[in-house]
Amino acid sequence: MTAALSRILTTLRSGLFGTRANTLVTVATVLLLSQVVPPLVRWAVLDATFGGDAAACTRAGACWAFVAAKLRFILFAFYPPGLQWRPALVILLLAAILVASALPRLWGRPLLVAWPLTILACWLLMQGAFTATPIPSNQWGGLPVTLFVWAVCFAAATPIAVLLALARRSTLGGLRTFSVLYIELMRGTPMVGILYVAMLILPMALPDSLSVDKMLRAIVMVTLFWAAYIAEVIRAGLQAIPPGQSEAATALGLGYWRTQRLVVLPQALRIVIPGMVNLAIGFLLATSLLAVIGIFDLLNAARASAADPNWLGFYNEAYLVVAAVYFVICFGASRYSQWLEGKLAGGRTCPRTA
Amino acid sequence: MIELEDVWKVFGADERAILREARRDAPDEAVLKRLRAVVGVAGASLSVGKGELVCLMGLSGSGKSTLVRLVNRLLEPSAGRVRIDGGDILSLGPKALRELRSRRIGMVFQSHALVAHLSVRDNVALPLEIRGVARTKREDRADELLARVGLDGLGDRRVGALSGGMQQRVGLARALAADPDILLMDEPFSALDPLIRHDLQTQFMALSRELGKTTVFVTHDVDEAFRIADRVVLMRAGRIVQTGTAEALASRPADDYVRRFVRNARLPACDAQPSARVRAFA
After folding, report:
1. Contact, A202 vs A241, CB < 8 A?
2. Which of residues 260-319 of A touch B (CB under 8 A)?
3. 3-state DSSP call for residue B45?
4. Would you identify the family this protein belongs to, as annotated (chain B) (predicted)?
5. Helix or strand or coil: residue B211?
6. Bridge-based pairing state of the strands A141-142 and A296-297
7. Coil, strand, or helix at residue B49?
8. Closest Cβ–Cβ partner in A247, A255, A352 for B98
9. Pick the CATH number of A79-349 from 3.40.50.2000, 1.20.1340.10, 1.10.3720.10, 2.115.10.20
10. Mutation target among B97, B114, B130 for the A interface, most CBs of A within 10 A
């Protein structure tokens, strides 16, 4: 016990004060923390208000009572309160399919079938299917919108991205040129620009009789936009597969598509999973840009919650809650990516006894 | 069985122009250079009898790996004819060609040809899966072949967990899975260390003798060629320089290139002479 303790102390001492530079950094960090932490604790805990209404909140400390009162709004925004079990169910469904997709054990055909079904179920739930009054998408908001747009766009963009990546490596010149132009065009445009196209230009381009829901337009454009980024990541994976692999598959009598499907893509996609997760994290945060076309995603809902006349101006608290939600998802994804990388690498190189 | 008649393979942007120049008696090197031409195979003719094991031998860049790829049209010949059992394979459509590759021609490569995410058994069973053979049946066949190449009980391993020599055995088992008449082997043992290479040669000769597959075997190793081949085809700069048995090449080399090639070669001991096999299958 004492031995373990002294070992920990030794490690700490050498880590914090081992060299002159380490000592300097340690002292500087402690000084900085001593300036930052006490006011933060005072604001978040000591002077904070945990209950009551807006009048009970002092401006000196955090007003967690606001969060308690408005959490529902932050999560679901303007969705009709009586029907909020629907978006709650959507969150659960999406969480379930994401977790299922994250487990290598479950990778296979059933999952590919489950994805479109889940998306369809979520869309129907949000729309208020089987109720007297359908709920238009401008009443959707909060976390389900963020998660839904993210999951749908990423799921739909991936197959498009695979085709783009294959096209970019194709021997057919026309196809290759199209793919390069498409990818460079999309990557050279900011996502806000793409959202404005969805909002303003797409309705003009479509005939009057064909009015497409704003949410759907945004989803389509974001999907096309993300596909370009994902395509480049997948192309990197395709390039990592030795050309001998396709040659051997051809020699076995496989045609182009079966070679890609059975031999090349399964290996290439495994390689790029960490890169894909990295993209997915960036994309989740990018969904907050949906606010510019008036969609109440999580961040926008939080902003709107502090505009309630009864609870005016508690932006800090609202944004902190949202930041925490984003952080939990992104940190989880990042840890998952590391775990998976280790697992896949282990499966390839570690010898197993028979 | 396999007949190649005056086949050419040139690489470059304008195959026809390159071919026209390369076919002249004295090709103009400057023209070929301007066309950025690479002449892979230059007018090779060769026929391989049923059950015969022919080695294509030559230095790197002599066109031997290119030539073997013309047999199953992994590369399209620029000119010439390729026939298998008298049937012209250059006239086959994509579907018939895939059929030919999956049923009649097995191929083994030097490296990187196994599918990394599949188990050893699934790799061997892949050609059967392609043909729609039921799971239990193809797995039984795969296990049988694994036992044949000396890998009993390793079917559940990942291919990445095997050594180079074991991976080549898996490649051979996979090439045999569809029970093809023809085996194409592109330097299958070249990347292995000498002891393992020798073992695999011995095992391959026994297997080949037993199964009587018509085999085209590419190698740059003259000892390997002399040891296993019924007939050796020596190539230089895309052309076939000499064809004959190991003894013929060693005792009557056609020119200095052949002489230099075979000078230090070991002729196989009498008991390893494979020519008896040819007679048995002729």
Report:
1. no
2. 262-263, 266-267, 270
3. strand
4. Belongs to the ABC transporter superfamily.
5. helix
6. parallel
7. coil
8. A255
9. 1.10.3720.10
10. B130
Tokens (6 digits) for A162: 């695979």
Describe the strand order of the beta sheet including B239-244 as a list of residue ranges. B105-108, B182-186, B214-219, B53-57, B231-236, B239-244
Cross-chain residue pair A253–B153, CB shorter than 8 Å: no
CB contact under 8 A, A244 and B109: yes
Considering A35-49, A332-346, B133-147, B251-265, the range whose residues carry the highest mean pLDDT is B133-147
How far does A353 lie from chain B, in Å, by closest CA? 8
What percent of chain B shows pLDDT beyond 70? 95
Categorize the per-residue pLDDT at B214 as very low, low, confident or very high, splitting at 50, 70 and 90.
Answer: very high
Identify each DSSP E strand in chain A by its residue range.
141-142, 296-297
Query: Diameter of chain A by CA atoms?
Result: 80
Task: Using CA atoms of A220, A226, A228, A232 in order, give the dihedral in degrees to the nearest 10.
Answer: -150
What does the alpha-carbon distance between residue B270 and residue B263 come to, in Å, rounded to a whole number?
Answer: 19
Interface test with B, best of A241, A246, A252 (most B CBs within 10 A): A252
Give mean pLDDT in consecutive 10-residue pieces for chain A, a chain of 354 residues: 84 85 92 92 84 75 83 86 87 92 86 92 86 82 91 94 95 92 94 91 80 86 95 95 91 91 89 90 92 89 85 85 92 89 61 36
At A108 the three-state DSSP class reads coil
Predicted-assembly ipTM surpassing the 0.90 threshold: no
Tokens 């896949």 sit at which residue?
A: A344
Six-digit token pair at A350?
């570690």
| B161 lies within 8 A of chain A by CB | yes
| Structural tokens at position B165 | 């020599």
- The tokens 């369809």 sit on which residue? A120
- Distance (Å) from the alpha carbon of B27 to chain A's nearest alpha carbon: 30
CB contact (8 A) between residue B157 and residue A352: yes
CA distance B199 to chain A (A): 23
Q: Per the CB < 8 Å rule, is A251 touching B74?
A: yes
Cβ of A352 within 8 Å of Cβ of B158? The answer is yes
- The number of C-beta contacts closer than 8 angstroms across A and B is 73
Is A252 in Cβ contact with B101 (below 8 Å)?
yes
CB B77 within 8 A of CB B18: no
Q: Are B237 and B224 in contact (CB under 8 A)?
A: no
